[in-house]
Amino acid sequence: MRFSITTAVALATTLVSALPQSAESVGNVTTLAAMIPAPPDAPTPPTTCPKLAPGPVSFKFLAENFPAPKPTDLYAIEAIRQTAALYALAIDGKAFEALRKVFVPKVRANYSDPIGVLNGVDAVIQALAPGLESFASTQHHLGTQYIHICSATTAVSVTYFQASHYFDPYTGIQNPVGPDRVLVDNAQYQDVWAKQADGTWKITNRNLVRMGPATLQGGFPTQPDMSAFVYGP
Question: Where is the signal peptide (predicted)?
Answer without folding.
Answer: 1-18
